[in-house]
Amino acid sequence: MNFEINKDLAPLTTFGIPARVSLYKEYDSVDMLTKISRTPEFSDNEVLHIGGGSNLLFVNDFKGLVLHSAIKGVKFYRKDEETVYAIAGAGENWDGFVARCVENGFGGIENLSGIPGEVGASAVQNIGAYGVEAKDAIHHVECFDTLTRKTVVFTNGECGFAYRDSRFKHEWKGRYYVIRVSFRLRPSEEARSLEYGPLARLRETLGHSPSIGDVRHEVLRIRDSKLPAPAVTGNAGSFFKNPIVSRYYFEEEILSRHPDVPFYPAGEKRVKLAAGWLIEHAGLKGAESGGAYIYPRQCLVIANRGDATAADVTSLADRVIDTVNREFGVRLEPEVNYIDSTVKVTVLGSGTSKGVPEIACGCRVCRSADTRDKRLRASVMVRTQGMDILIDASPDLRAQALANDIGKIDAILVTHSHYDHVGGFDDLRPFCANGPLPIYVRKDVDTDLRKRLDYCFRDHLYPGVPAFDMRVIDNSPFFINGLKIIPIEVMHGKLPIFGYRIGDFAYITDAKTIAEEELEKLRGLDTLIINALRHKEHFAHLNIREAIALVENIKPKRAYFTHFNHEAGLHDELAASLPDDIFPCYDGMTIEIK
């Protein structure tokens, strides 16, 4: 089977920004996809499945395999007087599919006219516009399971649809590829979803009850007047999600200072804000960064003048997030998926269970004025593929979050349940505001945390307690939104705990010994962070000499030591004593793995 090599991805995305992929393959049948899944190109590489590229930003070249569906075909089945099923291949152009439905007099998705992309992405993204979401019409989704190499069918309820969201974007990402989508439509020309702003006036404007064709025409007119056509001006449509905040914060902090802010109810005690309005009123209309700019007619869009780089877009997006957060106290979240294999690690804490300085200790390390000798309890934040993943929630989490301006956490990996690694769980409350926070834990850790934090798991919860989505893992690879995570089982004395490998980076803390089969998972690393408690022996922790020997065995390109106590010595003296390419961590240190 032939794969395209070093292919330019710019024509495959609506942003049109140059990036290359090592391997590329398009398939037009399930049989062909099955054959691809059996090749070494599939099994030996990171695999990314794309649709029309309307929601992607390749931040750098993709070192792996990109697959694209060219499965076409549309069929209509009349069930009864009230229902028609429209089944479309994932590779069908979305707007072309909507047009065919409208032309045949089948209503239900006409409000979604003009959205770029393909049918498969409609289910993955749960696209929405003008008061309608794809989930309102989706009946079922047919998928290819990459693990079993069989087709499966998910009902609407099984897909976990939410605002701009579905299970395909999270735990199912990378495993299930959408093959076809079935929509339940109405065999009627009568338009029904007319509550959204401009459409609410359509009846008055036309002088008669609007048809689904009238709605499609009006939606396309509105979109053309506000949004740039991707074929002319590169963009990914709405770059940011409309944020949802608590009604209390909205009324007390936002509405009191900005009485004209538009808002919409979003469930009990929640309010949805218009991200475009926030961006414009933060003074960012028309803002630029290199070849990227805020589209003046719709500030929710970041557009490409023709020569924008991915760095231009991400720089402008970061500026928007920071500025809106300062002005309104609201942190915007990108709707666009960053495809970025770079791993950026921030060391939040590099100390052991008592931290450094230790309370009531007057040794020279604890009295040091060097900020690198001030060590909070061990933890790191990993940023990759547009996600922020915290490894361990130490008792110092609140101070660490404030010092490092942590505004969001997408998931937490827990190494073990000792207090210096989980003592900050109650401080996670702000990160649970929009729903339960995914927590990945061993079975024994899950059991322990449910006992310690019983107030978070009761049937009747006290208002404001943190909400957790506990996901029990074993010593097997798993995925977070398509990102592969490899657990590394190490022995903390006699206690088995987990370290984690993410791409070419691995983080291990509290290890004393590592079995040979687990060491194999660490071969070929770029960067390793591992514990090195002190110079003297310890029954449950690697000392510095043992950690050096372990690094020399694993042979990463570079290694960093963490989880020090004050007996490890001053930072400068420790750094000078270590071999080349081994460095001591310090709080606030950032490491980038490309």
Describe the structure.
- This protein has 594 residues and is of the alpha/beta class.
- The chain contains 16 helices and 34 strands.
- The protein folds into four domains: 4-69, Uridine Diphospho-n-acetylenolpyruvylglucosamine Reductase, domain 2 (2-Layer Sandwich); 74-221, Uridine Diphospho-n-acetylenolpyruvylglucosamine Reductase, domain 3; 227-339, Uridine Diphospho-n-acetylenolpyruvylglucosamine Reductase, domain 1, CATH 3.90.78.10; 343-593, Metallo-beta-lactamase, Chain A, CATH 3.60.15.10.
- Helices cover 23% and strands 28% of the residues.
- It has a seven-stranded mixed sheet. Strands 27-28-29-30-31-32-33 form a seven-stranded mixed sheet.
- Strand 23 (387-391), helix 11 and strand 24 form a beta-alpha-beta unit.
- Helix 9 (275-284) crosses helix 10 (310-328).
Main traits of this protein?
23% helix, Uridine Diphospho-n-acetylenolpyruvylglucosamine Reductase, domain 3, Uridine Diphospho-n-acetylenolpyruvylglucosamine Reductase, domain 2, seven-stranded mixed β-sheet, 594 residues, alpha/beta, 34 strands, Uridine Diphospho-n-acetylenolpyruvylglucosamine Reductase, domain 1, 28% strand, 4 domains, globular
Briefly, what CATH class of the largest domain?
Answer: Alpha Beta
Low-pLDDT segments, ≥5 res: none
Whole-number mean pLDDT: 94
Alpha-beta content class? alpha/beta
Portion in strands:
25-35%
What's the quaternary structure here? single chain
Physical arrangement of strands within the biggest beta sheet: 26-25-24-23-22-21-34
Major sheet characteristics: 7 strands, mixed
Number of contiguous helices? 16
The number of domains: 4
Computed over alpha carbons, the radius of gyration is 26 Å
Count all strands and give the number.
34
> Under CATH, the topology of the largest domain is which?
Metallo-beta-lactamase, Chain A
Q: Gap between N and C termini, in Å?
A: 30 Å
**Principal-axis shape:** globular
CATH superfamily of the largest domain: Ribonuclease Z/Hydroxyacylglutathione hydrolase-like
Summarize the amount of helix as a percent range: 10-25%
Per CATH, the architecture of the largest domain is 4-Layer Sandwich
